[in-house]
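We both want to read discrete structure tokens more fluently, so let's practise on a single case. Would you write everything just below, so we can both look at the same thing?
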Amino acid sequence: MFSTELAPYKFRPRIWLKAFWRDCTALPIKEARSLESTLSARGYESLGVHEDLKAGEMRSPYWDAFDQTQAGDELFAYFSGHGGEEGLCGTDYGILSHGEVNKMLTWGADDGKHVKFVADACHSGAGAQLVREERANKLKDEGNSVVDQVYMQGFDIVQGYKAQLLDLVHQRKDVIADVQAQLDELDGRIASDPSVELIELRKSLFRQRRALAEPFNRKADALWASMLPTLKGMAVATWIDWPPVTIDNYLSLGSQIDYLDDLANATMKPVDDRK
């Protein structure tokens, strides 16, 4: 069963919106209530709870919350549940598209509201990237000062770096796909029959996967090393990471891509703050 809960919180002069689209399992419900309790303890006033929303019903609570805010207010939305390549799922497994989420967030930002949206769902990165790119394009069109142009050039550099790393991720995924499929099937068998033979076979397949992935990992390490001087300079300029040498601690492709997303957001922030 799939459940949807929407719980906005209000704290003058800011308004926070907390939304849950979650599976009816113990942990997500516990986390939802825990966050609700934490925010309430810090002085946030609940604006109501909406449960079991279908995709078509998920829109109005967001728009209602936007209508209740003014320029300078801060909105925080949290989504936890199922997601697809096209967007976030309601109880009917219909879709609230990434494009529509982007439309709401962009409208709020253009209206002077400070909007944050966190989605704990599969494919949520696609939605975040869409919002980021759309906002960047708008800022580029509106940016007039030399400083704004420099920051947005930095954004393009970071996005280019991310594209290079993602290309390696996709290449690696394609190469190890057959072995990974065998591992996934074997894990299912081991769950019901954890025999020594199956476990040894899994170890062998794991070594094969690691050997296939290793050339791409080495390329990624070399690519990241070549990016570091520029990234450290940008970290100083945006104050996202101080001291900037901590960037050397990002060793996996996933953590490196996450860092680039944070840095891309940081390059836009000074331009966005002046709008």
